[in-house]
Amino acid sequence: MAKRPPNIFVFMSDQEQAQVVKKGHPCVSPTAEKLAEEGLLFDRCYTPTAHSCPARGCYFTGLYPSVHKVFNNVCNAPKIHGTFDPAVKMFSENLRAAGWNLGLTGKWHVSDTEDPSGRGWDEIHPTATKTDHMGMHWEQWEAIAEKGIPGGPRQRGEIVMPGYDRRKLYGCSGGGMEDRGDYTVVAKAIEAMEKYAREDKPFFIHCGPTGPHDPYIVPQKYIDLYDPRAIDLPPNYLDDLLDKPRIYQRHHKYLWAQLGCDEVRESIAHYWAYCTMMDDYRKMVYEAVDALGLRDNTILIFTSDHGDYAGAHGLYCKGIPAFDEGIRVPLIVRWPEGIENPGRVVDEFITLSDFAPTFLDIAGVEQNPTHGASFAPFFRQSEVEGWTGEFHTQMN
Description:
This protein has about 400 residues and is of the alpha/beta class. It has helices at about 30-40, 50-60, 65-70, 90-95, 140-145, 180-195, 220-225, 245-255, 260-290, 325, 355-365; strands at about 5-15, 40, 45, 100-105, 120-125, 160, 165-170, 170-175, 205-210, 215-220, 300-305, 330, 330-335, 345, 350. The strands form four sheets. The protein has an eight-stranded mixed beta sheet, sandwiched between helices. The protein has a three-stranded mixed beta sheet with strand order 12-3-15. It has a two-stranded antiparallel ribbon with strand order 6-7. Strand 6 (about 160) and strand 7 (about 165-170) form a beta hairpin. The longest helix has about 30 residues, at about 260-290. The radius of gyration is 21 Å and the shape is globular. The protein starts with 6 loop residues before the first strand and ends in a 33-residue tail after the last helix. About 45% of the residues are buried.
């Protein structure tokens, strides 16, 4: 009788830099460090596109945006396409057909016409679905623009967006991690894991919290871990961008140049604080897997859809610029039964388009057309013959 494949639990944060989970980085992330010691850290994992919807499209399908056809945010008016090319298949459909339990909590955010259940998922606690739109429509922006920007002079940590509105980039929230929506996303994923663990079939859980996506508004407990005065500005912060595309220059001039150096340091402190809170959510998953006796036969994967410039090159968030801080994402994998010589760092290119073929490879089921390749061989060896030495991005 063939051995049952391992369970898979993917924790995909939103807008988390790869750099913050590396050992020695000033950002406090003990759970990530522990998992890297017990498994593998893939040091050069990249998103094919630094925008949530198309990036997640790459993850779910193994295809680049030019083929899966999700090019930008599907949940507001400026979308190019609101959903996938109808011919595209997701890895979840193959796993469901093979008898797997599949549970999704948190961000779906890849279609305004389809929900996860149509692609094989149990909708445990999904967000950013076709009925859960995010962001404003053009009509709302235009109404704001007609009234002008309210509120008087710019406040500390605030960005005034010409023709639109103003918003806080960072700040303090009341309560603790238990009072955030992401706590529910993680707790519901753990509940699903407990339920699936009682059934005699493998399970796949996709847990998609929204942090550390801007604005960096976090409980005081996490802010207190960092002293902005002790934070160095990014070494490329003073890049004048004159040798870069003009759109990079416009992003800086009309948005982020409003921040003084002290505000930049404060913003970085708040971003790291948010990442530390995400690490505490990872700890919830880590402890639950072990408490349920699933440690050996469950693959834990921690990653993100894209990074955040967080002051690098004088920029924030993600999008058009293709700098490392925005397109490199964390990837840590723990699987005691399947990883040889844990604690290794893999230095080969991995992209989000490699995830779908990896999952199907592990499950031993038929592959779909893909731009990626299974990175499962790295679980056993540090080098894989013929592995790609190039990586390209796509944007809109």
